[in-house]
Write a structure and sequence with these properties.
Blueprint: E1 4-8, H1 11-23, E2 28-32, E3 47-52, H2 63-66, H3 89-99, E4 100-111, H4 119-130, E5 134-140, E6 152-158, E7 168-173, E8 179-180, E9 186-187, H5 190-203, H6 207-238, H7 242-254, H8 257-284, H9 288-324, E10 337-341, H10 342-347, H11 354-358, H12 371-403
The structure holds a DNA duplex (20 and 20 nucleotides).
Keywords: Methyltransferase, Transferase
GO biological process, one term: methylation
Protein name: TypeI restriction-modification system, methylase subunit
DNA sequence: AGATTGAGTGTAGCTTCATA
DNA sequence: TATGAAGCTACACTCAATCT
């Protein structure tokens, strides 16, 4: 059974935290406190797990008040001339570490600056790494927060690491793994989250879970292909030129693996092209009935495309994993992951920034982006807009003439 | 000592949305 | 459908601690 003990100085946030616990059916005690100076739950060496998202780069912690706090086992990170701790990040980090029991684990969000900061902060970091309990570091790109655009890093401590992983840190850089929710907000899709997690399974030797995930994606690809049948057939029924579409569909329904995904993409292209022909034909003769038929066609097209995309999507997920870890074992992957040991950290000023170790990823090609196709669409849109533009210019000019001033 | 940086700030001007 | 308030975005600019 888990008991939650929370600390927060903001009243509204306390209410939110309590609601969050209640909604998830959890029991917890959230106390109003300023964590820098107080430990009302007396958590020192008591927590099996620590989870936190502390404020970043705070510069108002009174150094005198915290300098003898037992929760700073690695010392003060540095004091500015105003008598404040120059940056609060390592106060938070030290506190989280000190709350852990002998087997405890911690995971928290942290400002990207902290993992490579110099001076006093580097000293604290060195001592922290020397414990051998820094487990995993993950870089997250900007726009994952709803209200701020800052990038961040996830830090994980583990005091019960197996002996062979002691003094090793798994560096993961997923700054180019994301899904766009809106123009300003990004997140991970459930599959992206699983894929990141599966790297950690390999690190922990839970290779079967990795294998099962790949197998799941493969089954799902076939399942989604099956689901595609009725929607694709519905479109073919109404389409303008059935020839090539029908032939490709015949191949599609009997194919497997890579070919299944390729044919799903080919079908998508053919359907898009056919729909464009359909739309062009209606423009010229826009009777109400034909307009209506076009709208039906558009709905059918969208349904078919959406479903076909799922086929290539799940196939792509399986491929993403097997390309990077072909033997279903952890290995260093350029730009994504590297298992680093203490000596390498030392050579790099004890930096814990994943990007520094994993290198730069080879540019990934968006599987859904087709340059020729996109160029064609943009070109035809431009032509329409140009036509409209010259039509409007002519009307404006005519209107001026009519004013006869 | 100078350059860089930032869970910075403020505001004009545009878009969106509810209302009459 | 016209109107105005609120919301949002892009831009210009701050300033001092930290970095080199």
């Amino acid at each position: 059974k888990l008991n939650f003990y929370g600390l927060e100085k903001n009243g509204t946030t306390i209410d939110l935290a309590k609601m969050n616990l209640a909604v998830h059916g959890l029991v917890g005690d959230i106390k109003k406190a300023i964590t820098y100076y107080e430990d009302p739950h007396n958590l020192f060496n008591k927590a099996d797990f620590v989870m936190a998202n502390p404020p970043f780069n705070v510069d108002e912690i009174d150094a005198d008040k915290v300098k003898n706090d037992p929760r700073l086992p690695f010392g003060l990170p540095g004091v500015n001339k105003k008598g404040k701790v120059s940056n609060g990040n390592y106060v938070w980090i030290s506190y989280f570490y000190s709350y852990l029991t002998e087997q405890g684990k911690a995971g928290f969000v942290m400002s990207s600056q902290a993992s490579s900061a110099g001076k006093g902060e580097a000293k604290v970091r060195e001592k922290l790494i020397e414990t051998g309990n820094v487990d995993i570091m993950i870089s997250i790109r900007s726009n994952f927060f709803y209200t701020r655009t800052v990038p961040c890093e996830l830090w994980f401590f583990n005091k019960s690491k197996p002996a062979e992983l002691k003094d090793k840190v798994l560096m993961i850089d997923v700054r180019n793994v994301f899904r766009k929710v809106t123009r300003k907000i990004y997140d991970f899709s459930p599959e992206q989250l699983q894929n990141i997690l599966s790297i950690i399974w390999l690190y922990r030797g839970e290779n079967k879970r990795f294998h099962d995930l790949v197998a799941y994606y493969q089954t799902q690809t076939i399942h989604e292909a099956g689901e595609s049948k009725p929607v694709v057939e519905a479109y073919i029924e109404k389409c303008l030129k059935a020839g090539e579409l029908r032939a490709t569909y015949k191949e599609f329904i009997v194919s497997v693996g890579d070919e299944l995904s390729l044919l799903s993409k080919k079908l998508q292209k053919l359907i898009e092209a056919d729909y464009r022909l359909m739309a062009k034909a209606v423009e010229k003769d826009s009777s109400r009935e034909k307009q209506k038929a076009l709208r039906v066609g558009e709905i059918l097209k969208n349904k078919a495309i959406e479903q076909l995309k799922l086929v290539s999507y799940f196939h792509h997920q399986a491929q993403w994993l097997t390309e990077r870890f072909p033997e279903e074992k952890l290995r260093d992957v350029e730009g994504l992951v590297k298992l680093v040991d203490k000596s390498e950290l030392k050579e790099n000023d004890w930096s814990l920034t994943p990007g520094r170790y994993v290198g730069v990823a080879p540019e990934e090609i968006d599987p859904d982006f087709d340059f020729d196709e996109t160029m064609k669409i943009i070109h035809s849109e431009l032509e329409d807009l140009n036509a409209q533009s010259s039509e409007l210019a002519k009307r404006i000019s005519d209107n001026f003439k009519k004013l006869e001033i």
